[in-house]
Amino acid sequence: MLRPIFLVALSGAAFTVSGAAALAAEVTLKLHQFLPPQATIPSKVLQPWAEKIKADSGGRIEVELYPAMQLGGKPADLIDQVKDGVVDLSWTLLGYTPGRFPKSEAFELPFMVTTGEATSLAFQDYYEKHLKDELADYHVLAVHTHGPGLIHTIAAKPVQKLEDMQGLKLRGTSKVINQMLEAMGASPVGMPVTAVPESLSKSVIDGSVVPWEVTPAIKIAELAPNHTGFSGKSGLYTGTFIFAMNKDSYDALPDDLKKVIDANSGKELARLFGKAMDEGDIRGKDIADKAGNTTFILDDTETARWKTAGEAVTKAWIAEMDGKGLDGTTLHKDALALIEQHSQ
Known about the structure:
about 350 residues, alpha/beta, 6-stranded mixed sheet, 12 helices, 12 strands
């Protein structure tokens, strides 16, 4: 049975119930996230997911979409907004809250990611094995990653070898990725991805690391026309994402509506996120190519130099996890093995 409305209100959840009209939704869920609605994940995953939830529930669940932080706050606030019940659902980057989810950082280490789909499936499996305690405050619908991250820089500062990183002011995604950029000679600058266009236009940064997928939404092809990728099956890095529901909002659903949410959660949802990222990568690169931009793919020898620089970051992360009473070596090995398994 649904909880009484006043109990839901006391919980702080944004969950609402109405039986005013036969055709009206019984449950309205607010979904808050940081990207504009036309970006890949909002348009290709979150919107279709909301529509499917409505269809599968026979119109009993309505998911209201609030893109680009329309309900207030900063991207880093999203993880607490859904935990505290300010919203019912949020999609966000785990790395926006440095150090809070340490075991998830294994997937952010250098040269782990293969494709968005394979690495997302691996991360979902890793969640099932290692992250349920770390993410116990959330009803997790899915976790996922993006595809291979690249380096994108302004016209005057192309990156064609490791030495070109020296002194570059590059926006990084998370604590671990900033550590990687620093180990490779750059000066990392932490900021949400939505701040990148203005920071590039005002010369606050020389470039950013992001996957091809997000480049159209933040005008990378226009503002940073040099793009640097790497040889081999593994990309430079990836970011980790969570799509989560407030626990009280989920618990207040009747069992049949919980089944609707459950049927649209888990591994296949993680696959959808990853596949959308891969397709977005193709679109993003095509836009850069049509703009006449330059993409450098570093050869095997040069890529090996970057991998060597990245090894220090991995070793330091393992030591940090060991210091927290976690088994850093096992976490790293399991992440690698799961990515390898899903990449075959």
